[in-house]
Design a protein that fits this description.
Aspartate Aminotransferase, domain 2; Aspartate Aminotransferase, domain 1; three-stranded antiparallel β-sheet; aminotransferase; pyridoxal phosphate binding; PyrdxlP-dep_Trfase; Phosphoserine aminotransferase; pyridoxine biosynthesis
């Protein structure tokens, strides 16, 4: 069988050792006689899984003690509602729009209060992060919301604006754990698991404790971060199996040397593909070099009539899920932590062969 490399943006590739371990533990977790899927979420077995998963995440991200870690359901899109419900407190909030997902965040949050768009690159088809000097930040805002890596358009933040104390809320769904982050610079970090952490069904929220007392009285208990924090993310039954797999991914990442080590690998992987794209006019990436994502790399064929042939050939060569997001078009290679550098080598080799075959 041809070696398969899965470039899906999410649900995405998982480390093979994680899948093999989950397979080995499927019917009997550590002699308990139960699958993790069958355990009571309040039993000692699952409680030990939850505790270790949180501890390993805190280690990997160096999360300060004054931050709570929540394991929630609904994905990052549910947080579009939970964030204003938990943080607005009668104020307005600032939002920067640098891609399709941050635009969606604005649309969803607007139902819950006053939302100010302080920067937007929609007119330029989301190809960069605008210079912070152009942002119209409000000193009295409840928070500033950003998406630090836009999965669709492949735009990534490399630094942060000075908000003069206004908490920054960051959707890190598609690059969390791929690079070192100073958690203390943020009020809230959140992300869906299905890109760089584990299977769909889990959303992780890291929230500073002083932000837990601003929830609207209309906030349902299951959406209330303070209530969830006080109940170890178990005001309802949490996504137990997704948490278990996330824990295995965290263990695997620690074995790789942690976030600092995997970041070096990610830099090398992204460079391999970007360097080739930049070496030819057969393919093009429109994102400003400074803001090119390391995790999601969109690219276009100069002759887009060849798109179907490119995807068909890629499939035949074991290179899967390369079609770009429907809102963007073209191609997209998502190269999360679990994607080995051999996948990038295979992709570049195929792109070179395809170019050679179809160049005029």
């Amino acid at each position: 069988m041809t070696q398969i490399f899965n470039f899906s943006a999410g649900p995405a590739v998982l480390p093979r050792p994680v899948l093999e371990r989950a397979q080995a533990e499927m019917l009997d977790w550590h002699g308990s006689g139960m699958s993790v899927m069958e355990m009571s979420h309040r039993g000692k077995e699952f409680m030990s899984i939850l505790a270790k998963t949180e501890a390993d995440l805190r280690t990997l991200m160096n999360i300060p003690s004054n931050y709570k870690v929540l394991f929630l359901q609904g994905g990052a899109i549910a947080e579009n509602a939970m964030i204003p419900l938990n943080l607005l407190g009668g104020k307005a909030a600032d939002y920067a729009v640098t891609g399709g997902w941050s635009k969606r965040s604005v649309e969803d949050a607007s139902a819950y209060g006053k939302i100010n768009v302080v920067a937007s690159t929609e007119a330029d088809k989301y190809t960069y992060v605008p210079d912070f000097s152009t942002w119209t930040l409000n000193k009295d805002a409840a928070y500033l919301h950003i998406c630090t890596n836009e999965t669709m358009s492949g735009v990534e933040f490399v630094d942060l604006p000075n908000t003069n104390g206004v908490p920054i809320v960051a959707d890190m769904s598609s690059h969390i754990l791929s690079r070192e982050v100073d958690v203390s610079q943020y009020g809230v970090i959140y992300g869906g698991a299905q890109k760089n952490i584990g299977p769909a069904g889990l959303c992780i929220v890291i929230v500073r404790e002083d932000l837990l007392d601003h929830a609207s009285s209309l906030t349902p208990a299951v959406f209330n971060w303070k209530t969830q924090a006080e109940n170890q993310s178990m005001i309802n039954t949490p996504p137990t199996y997704s948490i278990y797999i996330a824990g295995l991914v965290f263990e695997w990442l620690i074995e790789q040397g942690g976030v600092a080590a995997i970041e070096k690998v990610n830099v090398a992987k992204a460079k391999l593909l970007y360097d080739y794209i930049d070496s030819t006019d057969f393919y093009v990436n429109h994102v400003a070099v400074k803001n090119r994502s390391r995790m999601n790399i969109p690219f276009f064929l100069k002759d887009e009539s060849l798109n179907d042939a490119f995807l068909k050939g890629a499939q035949e060569n074991g290179l899967l899920q390369l079609k770009g997001h429907r809102a963007v078009g073209g191609m997209r290679a998502s190269i999360y932590n679990a994607m080995p550098i051999e996948g990038l080598q295979a992709l570049v080799a195929y792109m070179k062969a395809f170019e050679s075959k179809y160049s005029a």
